[in-house]
From TrEMBL:
One GO CC annotation: membrane
Subcellular location: Membrane
Organism: Sunxiuqinia dokdonensis
Domain O-antigen ligase-related: 242-404
Name this polypeptide is given: O-antigen ligase-related domain-containing protein
PANTHER family noted in UniProt: LIPOPOLYSACCHARIDE BIOSYNTHESIS PROTEIN PA4999-RELATED, TEICHURONIC ACID BIOSYNTHESIS PROTEIN TUAE
Length: 482
């Protein structure tokens, strides 16, 4: 009886205190921010009791997160709310749990992808210390660490339960559908034929149509796989089919040529895997193709300069404009950013300028003849526009090498795990994750988004799915029940 009375007294005491604080902040400070305290308390409680639920909650919040400078203009720093504070909290909680238990799955720590990540993060940390802007670089590195902690190391443990894979995809895509409807409502008011409107209607949830299109293409393989998998519940398949239709329409209306291209390449890779063509010749072919393009870039550019088709609401014209490097401002600006990254690398080839510093350092490397109508000196239209040339400029040759090795190992281990299992559901999930990652790696030649929660959360989560299966299919399948 005393215990029940204590609970009642505590409840009313906290309620009265909260009402008093709310009244004070409303009258004296003219703000309702104090009302976020119950939500914050619920998040903290969830983190302490069920970290897996908090990870899934972050997945839902990611498409809906907003940059801080949109909410509070004029700040000298930025972050995505509420995801990045939650991820930072998860990082601290993970380190605390690690120190408390003093143990972690050694097979996970020694996995080839984990070893590649140590190289990737280690070199990034070293170049952050030698950076031209150390504080910027260290913040950039820390953000990488909390993304990886939550959705790689913790994600692998989360995805040992197959149900959590479906929950992750469902929550991210469910929130993404809300963004799609928001974008369509704005696009409808301006006219769906308006290509320029397609560039910004998803803002502020996604910065522009390129990041929006990249994530639509990223999830389409997974939605397609779930739709066509006969062993799943019909309700799941119908929901996935509905989401697939919405995502496909949104991808078309995004007018993101890079996203369209990435999905086509993903489909080609799916076919190659289904035909059981070995990974090594594919990798050698890809590297050889990139090397040949680099060697013969001058004649290739001369050939492309014959194309003068510009972006258009007509889909075929818009597709043909992908190779227009004569008058299409978007394509020309990419070439400008890429050439700046290469000149930055040539000046600092070993340690680079520092992670996250490209946007602050590239302006002096712009040549007048390469500037376009949309060129700026502040990188407010994106960074290096490449997941490969960005690290090259910011962390030198080893920075690029660390990312390429990491990407190659992810795909290799994914295909290896896919070939090693006969379980149809495991093959579905692995192949969907592999193709999703392929779409992003292809898109990474033209844009870079892994410094944002929108791309980092799903990208590293899909990597975690691959590694979880690669680790645990050797002795056991990931659990299918709670």
């Amino acid at each position: 009886m005393f215990r029940r009375s204590t609970q009642i007294i505590l409840f009313y005491s906290v309620s009265i205190l909260f009402l008093a604080l709310n009244f004070y902040f409303l009258v004296q400070r003219e703000t309702l921010l104090i009302n976020l305290l119950p939500l914050l308390a619920a998040v903290v409680f969830t983190a302490l009791v069920r970290m897996d639920r908090l990870l899934l909650l972050v997945a839902f919040f990611t498409p809906l997160s907003l940059p801080l400078n949109k909410l509070v203009p004029g700040l000298s720093f930025d972050m995505y709310l509420p995801t990045e504070p939650l991820l930072f909290g998860l990082l601290l909680l993970f380190l605390f749990k690690l120190a408390e238990n003093r143990s972690f799955d050694k097979s996970l720590l020694k996995h080839p992808v984990s070893l590649a990540l140590y190289f990737y993060l280690g070199w990034m940390l070293l170049t952050s210390l030698t950076s031209t802007m150390p504080l910027v670089s260290l913040k950039f590195w820390l953000a990488k660490v909390w993304f990886l902690t939550a959705f790689y190391w913790m994600g692998i443990l989360l995805f040992r339960n197959i149900k959590n894979i479906y929950w992750f995809v469902g929550l991210y895509c469910g929130a993404f559908v809300l963004v799609i409807f928001y974008a369509w409502s704005r696009h409808l008011a301006l006219g769906f034929h308006n290509v320029q409107a397609a560039h910004f209607v998803m803002n502020p949830f996604y910065k522009d149509h390129t990041s929006y299109g990249a994530m639509l293409a990223f999830f389409i393989p997974f939605l397609l796989g779930i739709t066509l998998f006969p062993k799943l519940r019909m309700s799941y398949r119908l929901l996935a089919a509905l989401a697939l239709v919405l995502f496909a329409l949104a991808l078309v209306l995004s007018y993101s040529r890079a996203a369209w291209l990435s999905l086509l390449v993903g489909a080609a890779v799916w076919l190659l895997i289904r035909l059981k063509i070995r990974f090594r010749p594919l990798f050698v072919t890809a590297v050889s193709t990139i090397a040949l393009v680099w060697i013969f870039q001058a004649p290739i550019l001369q050939f492309l300069e014959r194309n003068d088709q510009e972006s258009s609401a007509d889909l075929m014209t818009h597709i043909s404009s992908m190779t227009n490097v004569t008058s299409d401002a978007s394509n020309l600006e990419r070439l400008n950013r890429w050439s700046c990254a290469i000149r930055m690398f040539e000046e600092k080839p070993v340690f680079g300028w520092g992670p996250g510093t490209y946007m602050f350092q590239y302006a002096p490397f712009q040549l007048t003849r390469h500037r376009t109508t949309i060129s700026t000196n502040s990188a407010d239209r994106g960074n290096a526009h490449s997941e490969y040339l960005g690290p090259l400029a910011e962390s030198g040759f080893l920075g690029l090498l660390s990312f390429v090795v990491l990407a190659a190992l992810i795909l290799y281990r994914g295909i290896h795990a896919y070939s090693a299992t006969n379980d149809p559901e495991a093959r579905l999930l692995l192949l969907s994750a592999i193709i999703g990652i392929v779409t992003y790696l292809v898109h990474g030649f033209l844009n870079n988004f892994l410094d944002t929660d929108k791309a980092s959360v799903p990208f590293w989560a899909f990597v975690a799915i691959i590694v979880a299966y690669d680790l645990y299919t050797k002795s056991e399948q990931p659990a299918s029940d709670d």
